[in-house]
């Protein structure tokens, strides 16, 4: 027999409440527990409801994860289109990779020049810490822009300024100040000594102009105008320029040697000037891999749904509805059998690899369109349906909101009942203790004075 009021309450509704830990006599404890025993059925129902809601919320989370995993797979297959690969007829000119929207065909490419960055070098100094200029405070301004027939045109917001004075008027000091301003600057060692080297980014619009005011000697050492180079200052070792190429006669300029707009759905990585034919063709091996991945992914999903139906979400209407809709979409997919895909008695997909291989060999485009066809393929439709299930306001969100609301209501009811029982237990414990001490007399009115 528990002789502690706290233990009595805990045994009734699974919660220890502060303020009721006074040790009672066995007789008083038994009377208190007997008096409150009638509430145990209500408490048990509340606890069972809370446990059920917690289990269901966990199950809904698992359902969300399972749908998301298959949705990502379906989206990948649905967005891939007809699997393709690209080859170049000339080695060393470029490499090509295809994406979702690549179209089969042969394209004539003429790479005229590669994109490159500007490289500037100063005159050499005996040492990296040799003083340059007078040491008078000077402002060095770096502009990024484009060299045109009318001169240098700085890009808006591209200017950066640093101050060079007697504390940092060396190659090391200037390089450090430029780096801190975000400019790629280093001190390099050559046969004649040390020089300041400044590099820009790839592309014609990344040319660098260096202006110096406040110290003529410093300007003569590191100043540079790409539109009007002088005999003094920095020397240009490499000019900023775009990649220039033609594709089937169409001229294209790119600030990068990775060109994604020349051929639809295909990225060209330029490596040298030259002519080549780029052939984009179907990659039938990837089609088979996509179909096999789809079958495995769907079977993994249905197995997970079956586990949830037998456990955490047993009898759940939302899960039943989702499972039914997905199954119906696969059953009415149309043409899957022609690609070697069928449904067994348990609702799992079965893949006949021999039949799939024959279907791909006969018409790879037809097989692909079964799964992805501008939103009309099975993978396209399943991806869209899963998005709808998982969206705000979708079936999963509505179910989760409903269960959460029910859980909160049950928790509130239990909390209120717990407070009520605590008050009753305290009052009864005092009453029964008083009666025991007074030989059986006394009532609640006596406790109230």
Mean pLDDT: 87
List segments where confidence is low: pLDDT < 50 over at least 5 consecutive residues.
13-21, 444-449
End-to-end separation in angstroms reads 31 Å
Tell me the major beta sheet: 5 strands, antiparallel
- Strand element count: 18
**How would you sum up the global shape?**
flat
* Distinct helical segment count: 12
The string of secondary-structure elements, in order, is HHHEEEEEEEHEEEHEEEEEEHHEEHHHHH
InterPro entries: FliD, FliD_C, FliD_N
Organism: Pseudoduganella armeniaca
Pfam families: FliD_C, FliD_N
Domain Flagellar hook-associated protein 2 C-terminal: 240-435
Explain what this protein looks like in three dimensions.
The protein is of the alpha+beta class. The protein folds into four domains: 89 residues, no CATH class; 136 residues; 71 residues, no CATH class; 122 residues, Sandwich (Immunoglobulin-like), CATH 2.60.40. 44% of the residues lie in helices and 24% in strands. The chain contains twelve helices and 18 strands. The chain has a five-stranded antiparallel sheet with strand order 1-16-3-12-13, with no helix packed on it. Strand 5 and strand 6 form a beta hairpin. Helix 1 packs parallel to helix 2. The two termini are 31 Å apart. The relative contact order is 0.16.
């Amino acid at each position: 027999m528990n002789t502690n009021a706290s233990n009595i309450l805990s045994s009734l509704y699974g919660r220890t409440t502060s303020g009721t830990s006074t040790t009672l006599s066995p007789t008083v404890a038994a009377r208190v527990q007997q008096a409150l025993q009638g509430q145990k059925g209500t408490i048990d129902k509340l606890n069972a409801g809370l446990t059920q809601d917690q289990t269901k919320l966990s199950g809904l989370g698992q359902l969300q994860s399972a749908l998301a995993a298959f949705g990502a797979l379906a989206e990948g297959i649905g967005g891939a289109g007809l699997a393709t690969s690209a080859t170049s007829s000339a080695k060393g000119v470029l490499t090509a990779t295809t994406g979702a929207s690549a179209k089969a065909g042969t394209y004539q490419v003429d790479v005229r020049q590669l994109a490159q960055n500007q490289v500037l070098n100063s005159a050499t100094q005996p040492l990296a810490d040799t003083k340059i200029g007078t040491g008078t405070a000077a402002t060095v301004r770096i502009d990024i822009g484009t060299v045109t027939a009318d001169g240098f045109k700085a890009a808006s917001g591209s200017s950066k300024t640093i101050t060079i004075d007697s504390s940092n008027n060396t190659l090391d000091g200037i390089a450090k100040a430029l780096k801190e301003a975000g400019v790629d600057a280093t001190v390099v060692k050559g046969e004649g000594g040390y020089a300041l080297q400044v590099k820009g980014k790839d592309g014609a619009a990344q040319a660098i102009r260096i202006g110096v005011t406040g110290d003529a000697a410093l300007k003569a050492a590191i100043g540079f105008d790409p539109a009007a180079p002088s005999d003094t200052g920095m020397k240009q070792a490499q000019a900023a320029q775009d990649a220039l190429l033609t594709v089937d006669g169409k001229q294209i300029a790119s600030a990068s040697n990775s060109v994604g707009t020349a051929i639809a759905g295909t990225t060209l990585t330029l490596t040298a000037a030259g002519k080549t034919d780029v052939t984009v063709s179907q990659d039938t091996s990837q089609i088979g891999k996509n179909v096999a991945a789809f079958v495995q992914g769907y079977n993994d999903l249905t197995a997970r749904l079956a586990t949830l139906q037998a456990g955490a979400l047993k009898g759940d209407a939302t899960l039943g509805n989702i499972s039914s809709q997905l199954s119906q979409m696969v059953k009415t997919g149309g043409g899957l059998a022609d690609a070697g895909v069928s449904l067994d008695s348990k609702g799992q997909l079965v893949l006949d690899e021999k039949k799939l291989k024959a279907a791909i060999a006969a018409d790879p485009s037809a097989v692909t369109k079964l799964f992805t066809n501008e939103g009309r393929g099975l993978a396209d439709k399943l991806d869209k349906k899963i998005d709808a299930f998982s969206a705000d306001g979708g079936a999963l969100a509505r179910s989760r909101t409903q269960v959460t609301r029910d859980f909160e209501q049950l928790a509130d009811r239990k909390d209120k009942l717990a407070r009520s029982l605590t008050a009753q237990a305290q009052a009864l414990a005092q009453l029964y203790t008083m009666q025991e001490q007074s030989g059986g007399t006394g009532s609640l009115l006596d406790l109230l004075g």
